[in-house]
Amino acid sequence: xxxxxxxxxxxxxxxxxxxxxxxxxxxxxxxxxxxxxxxxxxxxxxxxxxxxxxxxxxxxxxxxxxxxxxxxxxxxxxxxxxxxxxxxxxxxxxxxxxxxxxxxxxxxxxxxxxxxxxxxxxxxxxxxxxxxxxxxxxxxxxxxxxxxxxxxxxxxxxxxxxxxxxxxxxxxx
Length: 173
Fold this sequence. Notes:
Layout: E1 2-3, E2 9-11, H1 13-22, E3 31-33, H2 36-46, H3 63-71, H4 78-81, H5 85-91, H6 96-111, H7 115-130, H8 146-151
Parallel strand pairs: 2-3
Antiparallel strand pairs: 1-2
């Protein structure tokens, strides 16, 4: 089995049909086939009695559009999706220095339309804490984000260690 640039498995129609016979509830959106039209026709002719099956459709988008589409749909409870994340983060600040740094970072997150990511990270951290999951101290450029420190994503206080915000969310070229 091969994987495409989107992480989907690439199989022949015969292999996928064999897999469906073994598991009719197989999630088809994780697979690519060589000839989608042939596969779809086969499904219509032989599996019309299986209501859980979906017709396969090839992705006809480039990687940037694929990423953008997936970045717009975060799987999290509605209460997190609707959270005023900027207000929540500002409420975590204790000093004027905290407020200044957070305001600077919030602007960077807002410019890149990443508030949904912050909501998701809050949900992720809350879920890991609730389930007593242990995660790392932090690594890479993410530790230069004071907001991520406040949310509990990592344990490196970028203000204390004087880590420059320019290292985080910098423009990728």
